[in-house]
Amino acid sequence: MCRIIYWKKPAVSALKINSDGSHRDGSSGGGGVIRCSHGITIMAYSIPFEEVSSNVVEAKALLFGIQWSIQNGTSSLELETDSMLLVAWVRDVFKIPWQVDVTIREIKRALVGTS
């Protein structure tokens, strides 16, 4: 299956984080790209994780991007992930499983004060 994906620019003063994570055959990793409103890559990251759940890895990859952006002076973030579950957990649509609860709470805490 092939599809064209268009990247939507964030607001002028915001950074956009595109993150993803994966677990397969005992190996886990996550990463992302952080871009400014001009589409210029500010930072890209790839991190190995020891988690055994793709959902936990997705959340940790997003959290890393959020924390890095805030530590580097960003006060406005736009987030993009292909995990509908992660979005639902952050928005309190679904109950958060215990395996990912701490990471989701950290994401929510980090997002307080960002737009």
Please write out the topology.
Blueprint: E1 15-24, E2 27-35, E3 41-49, H1 54-71, E4 77-81, H2 84-90, H3 98-111
Parallel strand pairs: 1-4
Antiparallel strand pairs: 1-2, 2-3
Structure description:
- The protein has helices at residues 54-71, 84-90, 98-111, and strands at 15-24, 27-35, 41-49, 77-81.
- It has a single domain, classed as 2-Layer Sandwich (Nucleotidyltransferase, domain 5), CATH 3.30.420.
- It is 34% helix and 29% strand.
- The longest helix is centred in the middle third of the chain and has 18 residues, at 54-71.
- Strand 2 (27-35) and strand 3 (41-49) form a beta hairpin.
- The chain is an alpha+beta fold and 115 residues long.
- Strands 3-2-1-4 form a four-stranded mixed sheet, with helices on one face.
- It contains three helices and four strands, in the order E-E-E-H-E-H-H.
Residue share in helix: 25-40%
Q: Based on helices, strands and strand pairing, what is the structural class?
A: alpha+beta
The spatial strand order of the largest sheet comes to: 3-2-1-4
Q: What is the makeup of the main sheet? A: 4 strands, mixed
CA-CA gap between termini: 35 Å
The total count of strands amounts to 4
Q: Which fold name fills CATH's third level, the topology?
A: Nucleotidyltransferase, domain 5
N-to-C series of helices and strands: EEEHEHH
- By CATH reckoning, the class would read Alpha Beta
Poorly predicted runs are none
**What is the mean predicted local confidence, pLDDT?**
91
Shape estimate = globular
Q: Roughly what fraction of the amino acids lie in strands?
A: 25-35%
Put simply, the count of helices is 3
CATH superfamily grouping: Ribonuclease H-like superfamily/Ribonuclease H
Number of domains: 1
Radius of gyration: 14 Å
